[in-house]
Amino acid sequence: MENPLIPAHVKCEPELTFRDDIDPNLKVTVWWHPEAESSTPAVIWFFRGGWTMGDRHCCEPALHLLAHGFAIVCPDYQLSHQAQFPAQIEDAKSIVRWVRGMSDKFNIDKERIGAWGDSAGGYLAAMLGTTEEVRSWDNVGPFPDLPSNVQAVCDWCGPSDFSRMNDRPGMYDHDAPDSFESKFLGAPIRDVPDKVKEANPITHINGHCPPFLIMHGQNDAAVLPDQSKLLHDALTKKGARSELRILPGFGHGFGKETPKEVLHPVADFFKRELQK
After folding, report:
1. Is the pLDDT assigned to residue 1 strictly greater than 60?
2. Nearest to residue 92, comparing CAs of 24, 159, 154, 150?
3. What separation in angstroms does the CA of 9 have from each of 28, 60, 132?
4. What DSSP character marks residue 207?
5. Beta carbons of 52 and 180 less than 8 angstroms apart
6. Domain of 141?
7. Is 187 within a domain?
8. Among the listed residues 161, 166, 131, 167, the one whose alpha carbon sits nearest the alpha carbon of residue 149
């Protein structure tokens, strides 16, 4: 069945491998514009699921950008039962380098790459936006000589400081040994404060961060909106451009059928930051 979000001229490569060095089952799907007169910007979408579930097929929101002339790249990444932090960050950086290395094949402008994700995926996008200078996470994966920085980040309801996710009562006890965050780090978060700090995008904010659009549901009880405010405030304090939108009436994520009032700011943001 045809997807109305995918224009007829768009070509899809559904099952490409990008981490042969660790797992050939990690795949990436690319939608691209072979007939575009010049190379197009690309947006990489990272799926949600608490780093314990999901895959690259959970990408419906990102497909809305195809009609605006963006290539869309949807990768798998290792889940927490397969590997713990920082493996997922290494995967995220690997896919950025892979996109750059394959840019000619997919008519992509390697200097105009954005990252976007939801929840756990939003966290990965945020980490890409703040860790340009952490080169140790570029030591694995394809095209090691290419940079893994991105030019724009959209973070939907992602966590930032795991140590403060219990600041107010919510849906989960994030300090629990079996919490999403504890599984992600491979230990209860209160037992590994150094790792919690290293896993916090705020820790790595530097003078080279790209523009951020951070969006969060006001009624989110899974990841409190405070997490987005912490990130936004830290970015702006260091001189980075960041826009924070706390959306009334929404919980965690923005629903299966993402409304236009949520999608329009994202499209406007990426068009402003990535299109010539």
Report:
1. no
2. 150
3. 20, 18, 34
4. T
5. yes
6. 11-159+196-274
7. no
8. 131
186 vs 236: CA distance, rounded Å: 31
Do residues 158 and 120 make contact, with C-beta atoms less than 8 angstroms apart?
yes
Q: How far apart are CA 156 and CA 125, in angstroms?
A: 9
Confidence tier at 254 by pLDDT (50, 70, 90): confident
Q: Residue 74's closest CA among 12, 120, 23?
A: 12
Strand partners, 215: 156, 245
Q: Is residue 5 part of a domain?
A: no
In a domain, 70, yes or no: yes
The pLDDT tens digits for 153-180 are 999 999 999 999 999 999 999 999 999 9
Give the CA distances from residue 39 to residues 6, 29, 74, 95, 107, in Å, rounded to whole numbers and listed in that order: 18, 18, 19, 18, 5
Enumerate the β-bridge partners of residue 28: 16, 75
Digit-coded pLDDT (tens) for 176-230: 999 999 999 999 999 999 999 999 999 999 989 999 999 999 999 999 999 999 9
Is residue 73 within a helix (H) or strand (E), and if so which, with residue range?
strand 71-75
115 neighbors 153 (Cβ within 8 angstroms): yes
| Structural Rg of the chain based on CA atoms | 17
**Residue 191 counted as domain residue:** no
Output the pTM of the full model: 0.97
Percent of the chain with pLDDT over 90: 93
Instruction: Look up the CATH number of the domain holding residue 230.
Output: 3.40.50.1820
| Cα angle for residues 54, 198, 226 (degrees, 5° grid) | 70
**Other Cβ atoms within 10 Å of 150 Cβ, number:** 25
Q: Is the dihedral of CA 48, 198, 144, 81 positive or negative?
A: negative
Number of folded domains in the chain?
1
